[in-house]
Amino acid sequence: MIKLEQSETLLVKELVKKSIEEERVSFGTIQNISRLTGDASTRRYYRVQNCNNSLVVCFDTPAEHKENCTFTEVHQFLEQNQVRVPKIYDSDYNAGYFLEEDLGNLTLLHKLSSINSSGDEYQLYEKAIDLVIAMHSIPIEKYKNLNFYNLSFNEDKLMSEVDFTNQHFINNYLNYSVTDEESNFIRSSFVEICRLIVGEKMIFTHRDYHSRNLMSVDDELVVIDFQDARMGAPQYDLVSLLEDCYYQLSERNKEKLLLKYIESFPTLDFERFHFIYDLMAIQRIYKAVGSFSYIYFTKSDKRYLKYIGYGMEKIKSILMKYPEYSELRKTIFNIYYGN
C-alpha cells in the first residue's frame, strides 16, 4: 500500500460518503482508506473499508459526458454480453470517479504461483480462454455506434507501437544510435508484418488481456482494464494471454488452449491462424518491451525491467521459425546483444 496525502483521503471520503447518502451503495461507516498499488497507467485506486466490507475507488481521466467515457462504454458492452466485469455502483464523470466492487488482490498471475501441476495450469488458463471466446463471439455489427468500434489496430496504429519501441527500447534503454539503414530496414520489415495482420477480419479486442488483468474471485475470473478496447485481429488478445511476458506458459498447454480457441470458430483456417498468431506475437511482444522501457524511463519504475529479457528471447524464438525474417532477427539482436 502507498502512504496517502490528507487531501487524497478527504476527496475519496467525500465522494464515497455522497454515494452512500444517495443510496448508490449500502455500506455503512467508512473506517479506513488506503491507496492500492496500481498498474502502469495513470489511473489511481483506493480501497475503502468498513468493519465488514470494502469497496474500490478508481480515478480515471475525467470525461465531460458519460458517452465520452470509454471505460463505462466498454463496461456496459461486456456486462450486457455476460462477460464478468467488476460491478460499478456509482460514478462521477467530471471527477473521473468510479465506485466499484472490490475484487480483492488475487490476480490470475498470483494464483498461478500456487499450482501443483501442468493440469492445474491448464484449468486456470482454460477459464481465461473461455472468456476470450465469449468476448470474440459477440456480434459486433450491432455496436457500430460505440466509440471503440471506430478505433482499430490498423497499420498506422501497429506501426506507431513499433516506432514507440524503437524509441524507448533501442534508443533510450539500450542507448543505441540506430543508423538510417538499420532504422529503415526494421521499419520496412515490420510494415510487411503489420500489413499481413491487418488483412485479417477485425473483431472486438480487449487490448491488454493478460494474467495481471484477470482477477480470481470465488473460483471465477473477472476481466479488468478493458477501457482501451478497440477492433483488431483476434490473435491480439490470444497473444496477450498466451505469450504473456509475465508468465511462461507450458508449450503443451499453449497449443491445447490455442486449439480450443480455433475449434470454437469452425470457419478459421488452422495454419493461417497460426501464422498470423506468430506475426502478432512478434509485434505485440516488441511493443510490450517498449512499454517496459518507457515505464522505467518516465516513472523510474523498475518492476517491469525483468520482463524485457524474456520478451526478447521469445521474439527471437518465433523469428527463428521463419527464414524470410532472418535478416530482421539478425538486425534487432545484433543491436540487443551488442549493448
Briefly characterize the structure.
With 339 residues, the chain is an alpha+beta fold. The protein contains eleven helices and nine strands.
Give keywords:
339 residues, alpha+beta, Phosphorylase Kinase, domain 1, Aminoglycoside 3'-phosphotransferase, Chain: A, domain 2, 2 domains, five-stranded antiparallel β-sheet, two-stranded antiparallel ribbon, 11 helices
Describe the structure.
With 339 residues, the protein is an alpha+beta fold. It has two domains: 6-101, 2-Layer Sandwich (Phosphorylase Kinase, domain 1); 108-337, Aminoglycoside 3'-phosphotransferase, Chain: A, domain 2 (Alpha-Beta Complex). Helices cover 49% and strands 12% of the residues. The strands form three sheets. The protein has a five-stranded antiparallel beta sheet with strand order 1-2-3-5-4, covered by helices on one side. The protein has a two-stranded antiparallel sheet with strand order 6-9. Helix 4 (118-136) runs parallel beside helix 8, helix 5 runs antiparallel to helix 6 (180-197) and helix 6 (180-197) crosses helix 9 (270-299). The longest helix has 30 residues, at 270-299. The radius of gyration is 21 Å and the shape is globular. The two termini are 36 Å apart.
